[in-house]
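Feature request disguised as a bug report, sorry. It would help if multi-protein outputs had a clear separator. Right now it looks like this:
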Amino acid sequence: MEKDKHLGLRIDSDTHKKLKSLAEYDGRSINGEVLYLIRQAIVQHEQTKGTLK
């Protein structure tokens, strides 16, 4: 079983504030919101450009 990976991310204060608001609105943690948005981007990409490896 593969372990979860850690990703360090630096973002500016304004983006962090807005991301926090978005996460709270959606009932997620900031980490959960970032993961959701990344997964949505992957799905969107695969629907238009094909499956990623």
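(second protein starts here, but nothing in the output says so)
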Amino acid sequence: MMQRPEEKLVLVVDDEPDVRMVIEAALEDAGFEVVTAANGREAYNRVKERPPDFITLDLVMPQESGALFYLKLCRNKRWRQIPVMVVSAHAHDELGAEDFARLMKGQPAPRPAHFMEKPVQPELLVRTVCEVLGVVPPEGASGAREEVLARLRVADLETLEKIQSVLDEGEG
């Protein structure tokens, strides 16, 4: 019997808050439990607390790069089995090309399961995670949230500031 997304934990590792939010929203919309980290050091601590079933990993991050985190992850026999999708805008530029090439050659650790270029296509991301984990997303996943995200992407600064104000009020 296929498992459901609610039974799976995904770790999203990216130093850009907006990218983390988009990936987290898409995966949560599909039913996954999601935790996030802003760099490799945070990600390592999250894995120690509770190993995830899948990891999306940015390569270029301050404090500890995604590549270094991935190498540390692979040193642990249990953790190296966790599927990793590299999500990067720098796979082919001076910031990340060297790390990306080394990881994709499978040296000195196994190749990451998948690669996705930024900007992330949420539907493709969710479909890939579901396929790798052998789960079926609920019908209609990512519909409403995708519509909101699409509107946010084209909103003017004044509208975004109003939205932020409403969100800030809701946190209090």
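Even a blank line would do. Unrelated, but nice: The longest helix spans residues 157-171.
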